[in-house]
Amino acid sequence: MSKRLVAPSILSADFNRLGEDIEMINQSDADYIHCDVMDGVFVPNISFGIPIIQHVKKVATKPLDVHLMIVNPDQYIETFKAAGASILTVHYEACTHLHRTIGNIKANGMKASVCLNPHTPVHLLEDIIGDLDMVLLMSVNPGFGGQKFIENTYDKVRKLKKMIEAKNPDCLIEVDGGVNFETGKKLIEAGVDVLVAGSFVFGSDDPIDTIGKLKLV
Ligand code: DX5
Ligand code: ZN
Asked: Where substrate is bound, by residue (predicted)?
């Protein structure tokens, strides 16, 4: 059974009034606040970093789901914990010693999650899945909001779901990129637990209503 959780991505928020957008998420049925940290090296874009996460944490009443699109994430694990992260996601492609990284995230009291780029096969997680609290599948190439959903993601979700059922049934599946009512519904049917949505939520006329409806797709 899918957990049916929703994590609005503040990458598409209005940074002139970020506090109000966080307050909107507080008032909504959202489960997490998804924070996209980009370093301009791992991905071809730079978003925001630690001071913004600290600011969001002060206002937020929901756990921060922090998605690190950065090289050398190990260097910053303690810093993101101190800034307020509850879930910390690192990219498979950015971690040479992934087992150590996951251990460090957990030792710092956070849920540990690994993200796969669209080209990275899920079978590469076979020997680490037992240690993970969540797997994040990118359904666009990371770096920007508002991109087109990659259809192959449904297959990846189904493969990952089988692996999780066999090896670690408590591990959640999250999908990020191009999520809307249509793709969200198919993702939930395929076995996804957490839908990340940025432009679809913040570009809608009534974001609170959109978040509520995403939980019911
Ligand atoms: C993309 C980010 C996403 C982004 C999703 O690199 O990881 O979280 O905010 O944006 P949408 O929902 O607009 O595709
Ligand atoms: Zn993200």
From this structure: 9, 67, 143-146, 176-178, 198-199
ipTM reported for the complex, 2 dp: 0.98
Token pair listed for 207 = 């974001």
Active site residue 36: yes
Question: Rounded mean pLDDT of 70-90?
Answer: 98
Q: Return the ligand number nearest the Cα of 143.
A: 1
Q: Is the CB of 174 under 6 A from ligand 1?
A: no
Return the exposure string of 135-171: e unless at least 16 CB atoms fall within 10 Å of the residue's CB, then b: bbbbbbebbbbeeebbeebbebbebbbebbeeebeeb
Q: Each residue of 11-49: pLDDT tens digit?
A: 999 999 999 999 999 999 999 999 999 999 999 999 999
Query: Any idea which residue has 């909504």 for tokens?
Result: 28
Give me ligand 2 centre to Cα 94, in Å: 15
Is residue 67 part of an annotated ligand binding site?
Answer: yes
Q: Model confidence at 189, in pLDDT bands (50, 70, 90)?
A: very high
CATH of 5-214, one of 2.30.30.90, 3.40.50.1970, 3.20.20.80, 3.20.20.70: 3.20.20.70
